[in-house]
Amino acid sequence: MATGSQTPIDNATVVWWDINRCPVPDDCNPNDVRPKIESALKNLCGSGPVTIFAMGDLHLIPREELAALTESQILMKHTELGLEGIYEDCHAWAKDHPPPSRMMLISGPGVIIHELIYYFEDEGYTFLRCYPCRDAPFLWENIMGSSLPRTLEVYDETSTDTQKTVVWWDIDSCPVPIGCDPSSIRGRIRTALDSMSVAPGPLTVYCMGNMKKIPRRQTMTAIARSGVSMIQHDFGIDQIFYPLHVWTMDNPPPATIMLISNVEGEFQGEFHDSLFDFEASGYTVIRAYPTPDNSSQEISWANILNLPTSRSKREMMSREMVGR
């Protein structure tokens, strides 16, 4: 850590950019990424030198894009596991940059670095988090803060005129928040979907996870009595692949699929491709997850890059849902 002989003369900022979870958007010039990050930091924190590391599987990045980023003095670090080694990198950088210097992490959901943030903030650093563009109603906490529906849902399950919605809820990574009535969760999800103008229709909610870890049996009972189907799986939502395909066979598009989970790794690979296939077939796919680690400040990746906010909901959800 910083020694007493060091003086914070540079007001420096280091940026660790998870380039696989937060790729350069198609409508953004790679040469503009660095100046836009610097501009956002200046607006947030004032002037000072900025060092940017782009970390990830660089084999997945187009060669021309890599060249442009390198020419703009962004340092490239190849890792097959995204932010692998960030703990060591943070400590190494901090040795030469004492507080009140700043650290910024650009990454999608599912990156758990609570201890790292708390440690450096206790030491006097400012830690900033930057996320992909997302729609606020589908943060898990916002869903749980939704009001209950004013009317009882009454739909003809045999009708072909109504669009169906299925929700797969990973209770292991998105538990019932403290202070939230478990019996109200289904209704709050319905309200949140209505607020996003999801077509009204029959709603099916599956709660998946290790039910043995739910602290109170009354919680599980209250969830089930509200009309949520409980499915015991020791590994939560990674068991969703087969039942989701079965559901789509019986429920053709247009229909809506909502995934509530904070386990990012499960939304890559073969499952990644399936989600895009569902959207291409006409399904609406929505991703909900908890607010990431509590950090000093938060900023949207789209805001940094000055992207237009009129991009379609489906496009935004697709990008953040699979980390591309």
From TrEMBL:
It comes from the Eukaryota. One of its GO terms (molecular function) is RNA nuclease activity. It holds the Pfam family NYN. CDD domains: PIN_limkain_b1_N_like (cd10910). InterPro entries: Marf1, NYN. Residues 13-110, 164-289 form the NYN domain. One of its GO terms (biological process) is regulation of gene expression. This is NYN domain-containing protein.
